[in-house]
Write a structure and sequence with these properties.
The structure is a single chain. The chain is mainly alpha-helical and 186 residues long. The protein has 7 helices and no strands. The chain has one domain. 85% of the residues lie in helices and 0% in strands. It is extended, with a radius of gyration of 22 Å.
Length: 186
């Protein structure tokens, strides 16, 4: 055993002691993901409301920040930006289904752009690199984006909920895996 191995073991000790809590966190994520998957429409609405809350909090922080700025011109810009975020946050709460439609279209367009970019980058990689994996990832991302856009606006009620549910399930599995890995190395 080298000195770096011993240092790594020492650094991991506090985490090993909490491996049960890490596994429990993973289970909570899995349960939340299963609940979201059982009602994807409700999960979509919840994710839209979370976006609204984040916009309100960001807007309030921008307004507070505006009063910290010394120059008059920048004060107005920060204040305007904060007010825009606050208004947008309230609009999210006013019409969450319209917001879900907009966010779903934005998600689909972003995935299409990301997929095309990955494909181009993959084909431009040097020989010997894992360019095929990058191209494959780009094709999958592009296809997912095209499926989302092709089902828009009808898919808006469930797409965001499915993404939230899958994210929660994968994150939960990751936490459980980390916790079990820490437990077996103790």
């Amino acid at each position: 055993m080298t000195v770096s191995d011993q240092a790594g073991r020492t650094a991991m000790e506090p985490l090993r002691a909490k491996s049960g809590w890490i596994i429990a966190l993973g289970v909570v994520y899995l349960i939340a993901g299963a609940v979201a998957l059982s009602s994807v429409a409700m999960a979509t609405v919840i994710s839209v409301f979370l976006v609204g809350i984040m916009m309100l909090v960001s807007g309030i922080a921008e307004v507070i920040n505006a009063f910290q700025v010394k120059s008059w011109g920048k004060f107005i810009l920060w204040l305007l930006l904060g007010c825009l975020y606050i208004v947008a946050g309230f609009l999210v709460f006013e019409n969450p289904l319209l917001t879900a439609k907009f966010l779903t279209l934005l998600l689909g367009a972003s995935l299409i752009a990301s997929g095309i970019t990955k494909i181009v980058l993959g084909f431009n990689m040097k020989a010997g690199a894992s360019w095929g994996v990058v191209v494959l990832a780009g094709v999958i991302t592009l296809l997912v984006g095209l499926v989302i856009v092709s089902h828009w606006p009808w898919g808006s009620l469930y797409i965001l909920g499915i993404f939230l549910a899958v994210d929660l399930i994968v994150t939960g599995a990751g936490w459980i895996s980390i916790g079990l890995g820490l437990k077996t190395r103790s």
